[in-house]
Amino acid sequence: MALNLAEPALLRTQNLIDDQWRDAGLGARLPVSDPATGEAFASVPDSDAGDARLAVDAAAAAFPAWSRRTARERAQLIKRWHALILQHQEDLARIISTEQGKPLKEARGEVQYGASYVEWFAEEATRICGDIVAEAVPGRKLLVLKEPVGVVAAITPWNFPLAMIARKIAPALAAGCTVVAKPAEDTPLTALALAWLAQQAGIPAGVLNMVTASREHTPGVVDAWLLDSRVRKITFTGSTPVGKHLARESAATLKKLSLELGGNAPFIVFEDADLDAAVDGLMASKFRNGGQTCVCPNRVYVHEAVHDDFVERLAQRVGALHVGPATEEAAQIGPMINARAVDKIARHVEDAVARGARVVTGGKRVRTEDGPHYYAPTVLVDATPAMELSCEETFGPVAPIFRFRDEAEVIRDANDTPFGLAAYFYSNDVRRIWRVAQALETGMVGINEGAIAAEAAPFGGVKESGYGREGSRHGLDDYMHTKYLCQGQLG
Ligand code: NAP
Q: What is the C-alpha separation between 124 and 342, in angstroms, rounded?
């Protein structure tokens, strides 16, 4: 597969450490594969703990000067980075689409979405404020400063190769931190392209360092950062088991942590909902990125009074989705990320059918001209809590419908999960809207809305979906600590 870019220099295949593009110390390489076929089309360094430590050396050396720059100077550099990201939107979208399988139209949207966080945090940098507190004792002044935590390690998943890393690096740089970052094995090229653009924007040497690694070498790279007391914060987006591992291991040096972990989002359609709006919302939230997002509805609860009508309208829309190579303009559902992902989706559907679910549309693997890693957009009815897909993220284009009778029952079922990232519901009853929004145990709730993420809003979960917030005016807090100054003898 050829990746034709208007700016060929965006295709970086080395680590960025201390402003130098370098191979891994031991020279190992990691193939980057087309998700549709599993065939390699590029390679990047397969780094190890030695490379990870070099990256921290650079970030630690760069921290004093970067953190002392004025907020306005940092903001100007981050804004330049933002402008370059948008200038190269089409090339970045092609890289995302090629290595991750995201349909091109959505990939363009991801570039804009990721860039919106970069712009937001460039602006927030200039609004970092402390407090002057009323003194309790005469002759004293009490002041509260916000300071950058230091070197930040950012570890990101494959499903949003640009947005996830942009919304970590931008607030870290805005706060005055320096960064070592490791993208997912499946999608290193988008992250390296972003790092190249940061370099072109004039972000100084050592402020942003990026190393790539295979699934096999990743624990070695990340353990080197966990053990290094110079790394003061870990910001992670990915699965809950890995998030728990990071929380346990970072305890030795008590690092600050932000964990954006897995979800199991409920999507509830009450009997008083606008059904067309609910179908639109489910199409937007469930089938984006082929169902491979942490905030995708995993369980769709529909009131029995509107169940059949809703399912009919939904199945028509789902059956019409165009499955095909991600880089084709017409594609709405691209390939899944790899063979393991397709196997998991097929296993969930088989398990559901064996336990009594019925396939309304889809329910099978699809082989297109360019490869085998596709799954047909699927609607299942008669789903129950006994099925695997009700407890675990399916991470694919499968909407299982659960029938319910009353509000108390559906809230109990929606909350019956260790996860608490996003929830959605559709209702036109204003009292119910407030009751249900408060009862749902999640960090985010979409009310008559399926697309909830925005740079101005705090993104994050509760329970085993993690802690910390990305975006909004709260997003910088995770990268700063609070210092209290008490000056006496002023009376
Ligand atoms: P993952 O396996 O946890 O991987 C995420 C990152 O962690 C990757 O960079 C991965 O590197 C690295 N990693 C894997 N094992 C590690 C270990 N033992 N020590 C240190 N790092 C390790 O998750 P994924 O499958 O890529 O992503 C899907 C998950 O992310 C889903 O659960 C989804 O819900 C969640 N997610 C959450 C959010 C959110 O905002 N809450 C957003 C997007 C995705 P390798 O790629 O090299 O294995």
A: 40
Residue-wise pLDDT for 318-345, tens only, equals 999 999 999 999 999 999 999 999 999 9
Q: Decide: 421 in ligand 1 pocket, CB within 6 A.
A: yes
Pocket lining: 218 vs ligand 1, CB cutoff 6 Å: yes
Is the beta carbon of 263 within 6 A of some atom in ligand 1?
A: yes
Q: pLDDT tens, 353-396?
A: 999 999 999 999 998 777 889 999 999 999 999 999 999 999 99
Please check whether residue 164 is in contact with residue 188, taking contact to mean a CB–CB distance below 8 angstroms.
no
Give the position, in ligand 1's atom list, of the atom nearest the Cα of 243: 3
Does residue 361 line the site of ligand 1, with CB under 6 A?
Answer: no
Tell which one of 156, 255, 294, 464 to mutate to probe ligand 1, the residue whose CB is within 8 A of the most ligand atoms.
Answer: 294
Task: Tell me the pairing of strands 398-404 and 378-381.
Answer: parallel
Query: Catalytic: 388?
Result: no
DSSP-derived 3-state class of residue 259: strand
Instruction: Provide CB contacts within 8 A for 77, sequence distance 6+.
Output: 173, 201, 202, 203
Residue written as tokens 């910390």?
Answer: 468
Q: Which of 99, 294, 407, 470 is catalytic?
A: 294
Task: Locate the ligand 1 atom nearest the alpha carbon of residue 242 and give its number.
Answer: 3
Best CA proximity match to 206, nearest among 15, 76, 24, 16: 16
Closest CA to 299 of 380, 195, 215: 380
Look up the pTM and report it: 0.97
Q: What is the pLDDT of residue 250?
A: 95
Amino acid type, 307 = H
Residue written as token pair 């190393």: 211
